[in-house]
Every structure is written in C-alpha cells, then in structure tokens.
Specification:
The structure is a single chain. By secondary structure, the chain is mostly helical. The chain folds into two domains: 92 residues, no CATH class; 82 residues. The protein is 45% helix and 2% strand. It has eleven helices and two strands; from the N terminus they run H-H-E-E-H-H-H-H-H-H-H-H-H. It is elongated, with a radius of gyration of 33 Å.
Length: 243
C-alpha cells in the first residue's frame, strides 16, 4: 500500500489516480517484471458445490407429507426456553402428559362445546398449536396433527373429512335451505378449519348472506337451539371416523 501526502490545494482526483497506480517491480537478476498472482478466495460452499445436494426424503401418510415432523427447528416452550427435541417429540410428550390415551383425547375433543375453547386450553398446556399448523400441510386439521403425532393415527385432510360426511347423506333429514346452509358450513370447514363453524358471525358473511340475515338463517332450523344442535351434530359427523 502506498501513502501519498496530500496538500490542501492538490487536485484530489489526480492524487487518487496516482495512489491507485500499481508499482512495477523488476527482478534484478532476470530483468523481468515480477507478476504476483492474486490469492484465490475459497467459497465456503465450493467444497460441496460439485456434490449433488441430497434432497429431503418426504414421508407420506394418506397422501399427506408428514416428513416435516422429523426436522429440528428452533422452537420455544411456554416458559420461553428453547426446545431441544423435535417439534414432533415435544408435542407427543405434551399430549401424553395431558391425555391418558387416544380414547381420552377423543372423548375430550368430541364432548367439547366449542373446539376453539379446547384448542386454547391446549395452548395453555404448552402445546405449540400455531407452530404445528404452520409446520405441516395447511390442509390438515389440528385434530389430525395431534392424533398422528401422539397416537400414530393416519391423518386425513379437512377435505377428506368433509367428503366422508357428504357420502353418508347426513343432510337428508333437513329441508332444502337448511341443508344448503349445512353444506356451505361443511365447505367452510374444508377450506378454513373447525373454528369458523362454531361462530355465529360466519352467518353474516358470504356465501351465507344469500340466505338472508342471521335471524332468517336460524329460522330455517326452527330456532337457535336447533341450529346449534345441527352444527354440533355436523362436528360429530366430521370426527366420527377418527377412532
């Protein structure tokens, strides 16, 4: 490196050009210019660049990719401490601590007045509900994720569960319009999840508004109690194939 003193009146652009000029070194013996090779900078990944990357092996259960459960990521428990095991193992331990068996879990799930309340309870027990749903196929219900991880049950997608209900002709006992409402609720479940079925607010948005106001929709079932009973029965139909 060359250092050149610069005076106040000097043209900086000229000085810069001069200081950037490489000095030529002549070998005293041969009289030839000495050329220095630039050092090679090794790419941190070059060692592996010629090797084909091994693709993550995917594991499918009922056409659902569940291989993500084998990957270790950085997650934190309810106390803010990093989880040292895989998300799958951590969830399995939490579920086994909260439920004695698959039957115990199914009984709690099916008897819950609101699945949303039970899901919140699971969160409070330290089960990483949001992380589980983010990590796997978005078409899976939390119910199936838990049953698969903790009890080795083959998971079904929400669409598959909805289709199973349709095959049973469950809606035939209702009038045409009431049946249409339930069919649209079933479609809502298939695309968005169980929580929306339990909220009366869902009746205020498309496609339900085509049936009229919330009061008018409920009247199709006779009264509010009958409507809520119909929704409860729909949920039972969705999860009746779980065991």
């Amino acid at each position: 490196m060359k250092v050149k003193e610069v005076k106040e009146d000097d043209d900086i652009s000229i000085v810069d050009a001069e200081t950037n000029t490489e000095e030529i070194i002549i070998d005293e013996v041969s009289g030839k210019e000495v050329v220095f090779e630039k050092p090679k900078v090794k790419d941190a990944l070059s060692e592996y660049s010629d090797k084909p990357r091994e693709k993550r092996k995917k594991i499918y259960v009922n056409n659902v990719d569940v291989s993500v459960f084998l990957i270790r990521e950085t997650y934190f428990d309810e106390y803010g401490k990093p989880i040292t095991s895989s998300l799958k193992d951590f969830t399995k331990q939490k579920i086994e601590h909260s439920f004695k068996s698959l039957d115990d879990f199914l009984q709690r799930w099916n008897s819950a007045d609101r699945k949303e309340a039970l899901i919140e309870e699971l969160k409070q027990q330290g089960i990483l509900v949001d992380e589980l749903q983010e990590a796997v196929n978005k078409e899976l219900d939390l119910f199936d994720i838990i049953c698969h991880i903790a009890f080795d049950k083959p998971p079904l997608t929400r669409r598959e569960r909805a289709d199973n209900v349709k095959k049973r002709n469950y809606f035939t006992k209702y009038g045409d319009q009431a049946r249409s409402v339930l069919e649209k609720l079933l479609e809502k479940y298939a695309t968005e999840g169980i929580e929306n079925l339990e909220s009366m607010e869902v009746l205020k948005v498309p496609p339900f508004d085509e049936f009229g106001s919330v009061t008018q929709i409920i009247s199709l079932f006779g009264n509010k109690e009958n409507y809520l009973t119909a929704v409860k029965e729909l949920e039972q139909q969705l999860y009746s194939m779980a065991a």
